[in-house]
């Protein structure tokens, strides 16, 4: 296996038969490369994954890969996180509870 670090994939490419056949990516110096592949594993989390699918338009997939429903990139949800810090005179034993709980 060759691991290429500090590279950013721009799009997943599709061949004439409608099957994924590689990616186009930029290396650490911003130079564009093409990598052919029989299989592409996409695991870029909740934002990067739909971003790449939507960037990957082609004759077979004009609205992006896996997006025939038009729902890729829609309905993304975050769990909001709020935190308040304070200093108390007495020990509150906050370490005994999960961080999201009021302690
Ligand atoms: C603040 C925070 C706290 C969390 N706490 C917890 C917790 O306590 N317990 C828990 O179970 N989970 C927690 N999570 C969730 C957990 O971190 C994620 O679910 C998990 O890391 C997802 O793994 P992943 O491999 O799918 O994606 P990631 O670990 O996000 O990996 C995606 C990778 O894809 C790369 N990438 C994206 N786009 C491109 C591109 N175009 N080209 C090349 N590479 C690209 C990114 O740089 C990244 O390295 C937390 C997340 C956050 C943000």
In short:
The chain has one helix at residues 45-55; strands spanning 8-14, 20-26, 32-36. The chain is α+β, with helices and mostly antiparallel strands. A 3-stranded antiparallel sheet has the order 1-2-3.
Key descriptive features of the protein:
103 residues; alpha+beta; 3-stranded antiparallel sheet; 1 helix; 3 strands; elongated; binds flavin-adenine dinucleotide
Compressed to H and E, one letter per element, the order equals EEEH
Distance between the termini: 48 Å
Strand adjacency order, main sheet: 1-2-3
What bound compounds does this protein have?
A: flavin-adenine dinucleotide
Number of strands: 3
CA-atom Rg in angstroms: 21 Å
Strand content: 15-25%
Sheet having the most strands: 3 strands, antiparallel
How much helix, percentage-wise, in residues?
10-25%
Mean pLDDT: 91
Shape: elongated
Spans of at least 5 consecutive residues whose pLDDT stays below 50 are none
Helix and strand composition category: alpha+beta
Q: Enumerate how many helices there are, as a single number.
A: 1
Number of domains: 1
């Amino acid at each position: 296996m060759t691991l290429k670090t500090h590279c950013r994939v721009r799009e997943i490419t599709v061949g004439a038969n409608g099957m994924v056949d590689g990616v186009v990516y930029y290396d650490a110096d911003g130079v564009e490369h093409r990598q052919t592949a029989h299989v592409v594993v996409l695991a870029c989390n909740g934002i990067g994954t739909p971003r790449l699918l939507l960037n990957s338009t082609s004759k077979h997939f004009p609205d992006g890969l896996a997006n025939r429903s038009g729902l890729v990139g829609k309905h993304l949800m975050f769990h909001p996180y709020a935190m308040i810090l304070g200093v108390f005179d007495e020990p509150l034993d906050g370490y005994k509870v999960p961080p999201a709980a009021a302690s």
